[in-house]
Design brief:
- Strand 2 (37-42), helix 2 (48-54) and strand 3 form a beta-alpha-beta unit.
- This protein is of the alpha/beta class.
- The chain has a four-stranded parallel β-sheet, with helices on both faces.
- It contains four helices and four strands.
- The protein has a single domain (7-117), classed as 3-Layer(aba) Sandwich (Rossmann fold), CATH 3.40.50.2000.
Length: 122
């Protein structure tokens, strides 16, 4: 009987404090089962752009969606930015055929975990 390998999306980034735990989980998963497929999701602006590929893992990026701290034009743009990031995250989850999403940090995990929690992958 043949089974598909587990597919894990690790979402997070920004600082080494968020990336290091994700990489530790990725290493542990690979050690436990080398056939596990893993994709790390972050933004193009964080440290993950250097640390994840250097660790040997695939990185996919989605747009960063900062929450404005006070009323401004950025607050008006927030819904559109969030919808775009959610669509990007859905694309990542679909391409990865994600069975599990592991999240750390604040920016990229939200769209990925929202979608996976809503059963929006596979």
């Amino acid at each position: 009987m043949s089974t598909n390998p587990l597919s894990v999306v690790l979402a997070g980034g920004g600082t080494a404090g968020h990336i290091s735990p994700l990489l530790a989980i990725a290493h542990a998963l690979a050690e436990h089962d080398p056939d596990t497929r893993q994709v790390v999701v972050g933004t193009a602006a964080g440290m993950e752009t250097r640390l994840v590929p250097a660790a040997g893992y695939q990185l996919e990026t989605i747009d960063r969606v900062p929450m404005p701290r006070r009323p401004s034009i950025d607050l008006v743009k927030l819904p559109t930015r969030l919808i775009r990031a959610v669509r990007q995250a859905l694309g990542v989850l679909d391409r990865a055929e994600a069975d599990v999403v592991v999240a750390s940090a604040v920016t990229s995990p939200h769209p990925c975990t929202w979608l996976r929690g809503a059963g929006k992958s596979r």
